[in-house]
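Course assignment 3, question 2. Fill in each field.
Student: A.L.
Task: Predict the tertiary structure for the chain below.
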Amino acid sequence: MIPLERLAVIGVGLIGGSFALALRSAGLARQVIGAGRSPGNLELALQHGVIDAIAADAAQAAQGADLVIVATPVAQVPQVFAAIEPVLGTKAVVTDAGSTKQDVVAAARAALGAKLAQFVPAHPIAGAEHGGAIAATADLFRGKRVVLTPLAETSPQALAQVEQAWEACGARLFRMAPREHDAVFAAVSHLPHLLAYALVHDIAERGNAAQLFGYAASGFRDFTRIASSHPEMWRDICVANREALLAELERYGAQLAALRPMIERGDAAALERVFAAARAARERWLKGDYEP
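Answer field:
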């Protein structure tokens, strides 16, 4: 990959900041310009060497950039695309890091016009419950999956540049169609976050919340770890992917409904069969038996 003279990071949080640090570590980003809504976060990014300069807005960051990554919450993506479209050079490439893809693709179609060929939708499958530029690390994507959902209009040159950038970050690349992507991640990412938030909220709203939290231990901590994730980001994901998420909620509800009568009648053998099958499936997953 030819080093980028100018990388624009719009949304300098955990993902955008880590992308910048990884490319800088690989010697592939000579100048990194950051833009975002939080002046405090951008100052931290500057102080910690995540970016070299702060742009006044997304358009200023994207002007003259070789590669632009939009790593904002997905509800902000349409306005970012509209802002950067007039200043994108003919050779500039745009990518994103959103956890939903159909809405991002629709936003790109609406805003980028003739420059749609320069856009490569992407979703890095890496993260943590804490965010912001201070959480960014150069090795966040090493060995992690990145799903690309290129469009029929995406130019081979743009796709190759984004692939090379993610490979330089140490990521493993996969491809999906946007609808398939959203269905898959509704099941294995969006639903688990919703459940974690719901459980913690339920406990917190009870009259004896202090007692319940006081006795909660590692099982509760592990199940609810992702409820520490950024509320705005997950609000946007749930709304953007609500069709697929509602289908998964229906499926999960049916699973709970099947377990309820087993508990009611004290059917230990039936419960154990379900639990044993679930444990075996999880252990196969942990061993990598379900590689896509």
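Instructor remarks: The chain has two domains: 7-176, 180-286. The domain at 7-176 is CATH 3.40.50.720 (Rossmann fold).
Grade: pending
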